[in-house]
Amino acid sequence: MLATIARIGPIQSQNARAPFLALAARLPGVSHETVSAAYEGFGLVRGSTLRGTVHTSTAQDHPMLDAATRLGQAALVARTLRLVETTPRQAWDSLEDFATDEWRSPADLFRYLTAWIGEHDPRAEHRLENGAGRYFAFGHGGLVRRPLKGTWSGQGAPAIAPPAPCSVRRRARLATPGSPIRRPPPPRSSSGI
């Protein structure tokens, strides 16, 4: 089942049933329990990645989606957070550290991010009170979500955390020189060379 997800790529999953239906269409007989167990065991993870929307991917592919998300949303994050003395990377790392030991609600993460900016970057004139601003507290690629109550296929409020148990290794790998977070690919030449 995980190999199938790896082959087809991330599944857009604002509707929590989408990964279950996508897998059932490709693997007749795959059970709800099998897919749910893959989420529970972190073989599958659900996070706000591509274009800031909710996607399900394999845990192995999640770091790539995280890197692409951070790069793709960097300008919007900078315009919204308006950090002066800190960087979005520092804010994201702090949010991940805050959520490492327990699953957090989006409201918990929003309160934490607001307090963190107030403490670490008091000159920042952030715009966190709008929808996009609230989203940045839980919507960056380094966090994954699970249902706060109910089943993995049900719609409901999410709980958010780094993708355990690999979050420390993943973060260390992404922070190494040459990672896509530190060094985006050079722009393409218009000359075709």
UniProtKB/TrEMBL annotation:
Q: Which InterPro entries match?
A: AlkZ-like (IPR009351)
Q: Composition bias, kind Pro residues: at what positions?
A: 182-193
Q: Where is this region: Disordered?
A: 152-193
Which protein, by its recorded name, is this?
Uncharacterized protein
Question: What organism is recorded for this protein?
Answer: Nostocoides veronense
